[in-house]
Amino acid sequence: MGTFSIGTGPVSALALARAAADPTFHVEITHDALSLMHRAREVVEQAAASGQRVYGLNTLLGSGRDTVVEEKSILAYQVQVVRYHNSGVGPYLDRAAARSVILARLIGFTRGGSGVRPGTASFYAELLNRGVFPAIPSEGSVGSSDLTQLAAVAAVALGEGEAFDASGMLVPGAKALADAGLQPLQPAAGEALALVSANAYSVGAGTLALVRLQQLARLADVALSLSLETIARYDGGGNLSPFSPIIQAAKEVDGQRDSAAAVRRLLGGGWLEEVRPEVSVQDALSFRAAPQNHGAFRSLVSQLGLALEVELNGRGDNPLVDVESGAMVSGGNFQPMQLAMSFEGLRLALAHVGISSERRIAKLYPPQRAIRARHLAAASLEPGSASALIQEELPGLLWYSAAGLLAELKFLAAPATLGAPTLSADVEDHSTLAPLALQQLEKSIDAAEKLLAIEALTASYLLLEAEAAQPLGNGTGLVVGRLADVLADRPSAADLVERARTVLWEVVQQLFPEEASS
User: Fold this and answer.
1) Distances in Å between the alpha carbon of 450 and those of 216, 250, 326, 405, 514?
2) Which residues contact 216 (CB under 8 A, 6 or more apart)?
3) pLDDT tens digits, residue range 220-235?
């Protein structure tokens, strides 16, 4: 069991993702963080005692921002705020995503900007440590704080809402707390808004997407390397000069040199490293300019990591509790525009990665027709016979699937952040739609993983059929060997791609252990 310690220092996006994905992590809050939250809470209580109007502390929300809540009603108002915002719809988040939401909000508490009591933050830590799994609807946020998702968590904390029990059944939130040995939280003045007003869904689930994107960047280089091995054998291609350090040093593009170096590493020890007089002067751009394509994608993945950590470690609360000045200040830090734009840009980048992958798959097919002809001649099979169709079945179907996945990637690349309507009597007249941009990105990741798995499968199939004497690269040889086992079982196309994705995930982690652990 690992420990996820939350202090006042920076927390990395990958550390959050690891703790969210592993329910055995024990979450603890350091003394420094508890002390900072105590000082922030004193600021809130001083503001409440002064009688000054503070948004959400003693006023209504949204268009009711200037309407005062009577002092005698403030505690009851906290429950009303949570109930009002607990209105999300759509499929529930899985356990890892739900944990990421709670963790992200908990980290936000420890930055000192929310003004919650230290005990409230500790209660959220115990939700995680005792395995409480709130039922959090995935839809309902427009990206000006993930109000509905966080209200679903807060509702369970208050002994309302719904949660999943150990068997995966929905149960009342009160029962989930009781089963975990917890008493419902009684929110103090101003805490309800602090519980729901943050971008913890976009940030938390965004860290899980970041892990997949980093893996996908390595998978793209693996699929490319396998295709280079294949066209070298069947089409006289596989020119490695575009991946040379000389080319990569000539132009500074973040991620480009890393992609080219990964390809050289995967092909290292194989015959493509040898001088081949017959090699084509240069390959098609889907091969030759792949470092530029994959490098730009890697760069955007890095930018996403930075954007996530800005939100994760910043103080996005409104009103913001400022311990230094002792003031509560209204602002707009709850608009994660940089993060939303990172989600947007990555979908476009994935579409470009997909275009190159599908074009490489297409170029693998002419030599494959020659392979099938040799099989038919050797086995004296009539075209169209059952055995001949087996030889043709796998590659043909997968190329069509690749084309369909590419169309999906292009469709998903369209902007998501421009569509929010105005809300709350035109007071909330701009939103980021970061959650929608993230959800579309998750779909793009899924499609891109399948497409790259198809490229890897197609190239591996051809390399296995060729039975060439020349040695494969150390990395590509390992991948082909693992995918050979998958191909030998001849599962259905859907099972084939899913099994290949699982195998490729494992192999990529094996080939790049230092990157997987960073």
Assistant:
1) 10, 33, 53, 8, 24
2) 350, 445, 448, 449, 452
3) 999 999 999 999 988 8
pLDDT digits (tens, 9 = 90+) for 85-126: 999 999 999 999 999 999 999 999 999 999 999 999 999 999
Measured from the Cβ of residue 418, the count of other Cβ atoms closer than 10 Å reads: 8
Cβ atoms of residues 394 and 368 within 8 Å? no
- d(Cα 390, Cα 388) in Å, to the nearest integer? 5
Classify residue 275 by burial, with Cβ atoms within 10 Å: 0-12, 13-18, 19+.
exposed
Alpha-carbon span 145 to 205, nearest angstrom: 14
The residue ranges of every structural domain in the chain are: 3-198, 205-516
Q: Which top CATH class is 205-516? A: mainly alpha
DSSP state of 163: E
Helices (H) and strands (E) in the chain, counts: 20, 9
Task: Report residue 5 CA to chain centroid gap.
Answer: 22
- Contacts of 360 by beta carbon, 8 Å cutoff, 6+ apart: 223, 224, 227, 286, 287, 455
Which tens digits make up the pLDDT trace of 67-83?
Answer: 877 878 889 999 999 99
Cis peptide before 172 (omega within 30 of 0): no
**Contact status, residue 453 vs residue 500, Cβ threshold 8 Å:** yes
Give the CA distances from residue 257 to residues 221, 243, 253, 511, in Å, rounded to whole numbers and listed in that order: 12, 8, 7, 18
CA distance 164 to 48: 37
The three-state secondary structure class of 68 is strand
> E strands along 399-487, which residues?
none
Q: Which amino acid is at 458?
A: T
Contact yes or no for 33/110 (Cβ under 8 A): yes
Domain 3-198, second-level architecture:
Orthogonal Bundle (1.10)
CA-based nearest residue to 321, from 18, 98, 19, 115: 115
Taking every pair of Cα atoms in the chain, the longest distance, rounded to a whole number of angstroms, is 94
- Nearest Cα neighbor of 39 from 132, 112, 137 is 112
Rg (CA), the chain: 27
